[in-house]
Amino acid sequence: xxxxxxxxxxxxxxxxxxxxxxxxxxxxxxxxxxxxxxxxxxxxxxxxxxxxxxxxxxxxxxxxxxxxxxxxxxxxxxxxxxxxxxxxxxxxxxxxxxxxxxxxxxxxxxxxxxxxxxxxxxxxxxxxxxxxxxxxxxxxxxxxxxxxxxxxxxxxxxxxxxxxxxxxxxxxxxxxxxxxxxxxxxx
Length: 187
Description:
Elements: E1 4-7, H1 9-12, H2 15-26, E2 31-33, H3 36-49, H4 55-68, H5 78-81, H6 92-101, E3 105-107, H7 116-119, E4 125-127, H8 129-154, H9 162-171, H10 175-185
Parallel strand pairs: 1-2, 1-3, 3-4
């Protein structure tokens, strides 16, 4: 059975990283979870930073995220928030959701906001997206490679060569993942 993970807003914000993480979940390599509060943060920041993106397109992306990943939405976590301690109180809802859904990890770029000592009582760990994808590659390199091949094939409007897709992942912090995928895919 695939691990249950919470995707923090910061890893769902960059389109390329979000697309890869969602595709890995859709392929069944991981059981991805998030909350409406996490999605609110993602789309609030996208609207603020990218006014060029049509609201209808953002709404469609959010809808697809909620409908294409089975059981992605965590609810009923709110009562846990007040009893949790993290360096940034604004992140307590992420930890509460992880506890509520029995996640094994929180995938986040903000590791300092989720210290190991705060997560240990809940048998949770925080992992950077680069480490997360590398772990999946270690577990099933062929399946991850298939996900990326399918992704590149699906990018038609506009088409995006594999080398550019991997460069984009590296620009968004998945440097070692991009390097490993270059080797695996012969790019």
